[in-house]
Amino acid sequence: MTTDELDPLIHVPTRLKIVATLAALPDGDTLSFTRLQDMIGLTPGSQIIHLCELGYAGYVRTDKTGGDRAPTTVALTGDGRAALDRYTAVLRQLPRVAREDHQAPAPCVRVGDADRDAAAAALGEHFAQGRLTLDELDARLDATLSAITHGELSQATRDLPDLTVLSARVSLSRGKRARPGHKPGPAPGQAAWPRRHGWTRGGSS
């Protein structure tokens, strides 16, 4: 399994941020175009281009109801969420494959595009699961994409858990019997992250 199996449409850092941001919303929720623009930090024209690319693939849906003065809203579709799930499934396997195929490189060893791509994809998954804010994601993506050595690359994920180990722990915990009267919380990267930022159902606050 290699980075070639990652969806090239959402592997672009800007589109990954758009998809991950929308995926963090509870099912059925939307963001206004301007709110998404503020969060991602794009110009209107650039955001339209990226949303068109994602829209052509059926990954996002834009709606404008209530007349010309009504805000345009953006939401992730079922196909978009499924694409992100496939993307993260491939992502979770990359560290395991890398460990099986190679010993950990020395910090002074130079990195290649595949190394940067894998690290950037991991950051997108950590953002989707609520471990990073959008500003932190931006800063770490910049550092990742400009990293020259493995030592520099590792700094972007130094305080984040291994996704492969984390995935195994989540699977194990979900298999355990729930305690009497215990109500499971939201899945990682879904309802909890938006509520921390004051979002409300039906759009941004």
Write structural notes for this entry.
By secondary structure, this protein is mainly alpha-helical. It is built from 10 helices and 3 strands. Helix 2 runs parallel beside helix 6, helix 5 crosses helix 6 and helix 6 runs antiparallel to helix 7. The protein is elongated, with a radius of gyration of 18 Å.
Please name the defining characteristics of this protein.
disordered C terminus, Arc Repressor Mutant, subunit A, 10 helices, 205 residues, mainly alpha, single chain
The total count of helices amounts to: 10
Low-confidence stretches: 165-205
Q: What is the CATH class name?
A: Mainly Alpha
Number of domains: 1
Give the CATH topology.
Arc Repressor Mutant, subunit A
Terminal CA distance: 41 Å
CATH H level, superfamily name: Winged helix-like DNA-binding domain superfamily/Winged helix DNA-binding domain
SSE sequence, one letter per element? HHEHHEEHHHHHH
User: What amount of the residues lies in strands?
Assistant: under 5%
Largest sheet, spatial ordering of strands: 1-3-2
Count of distinct strands: 3
CATH-level-2 architecture: Orthogonal Bundle
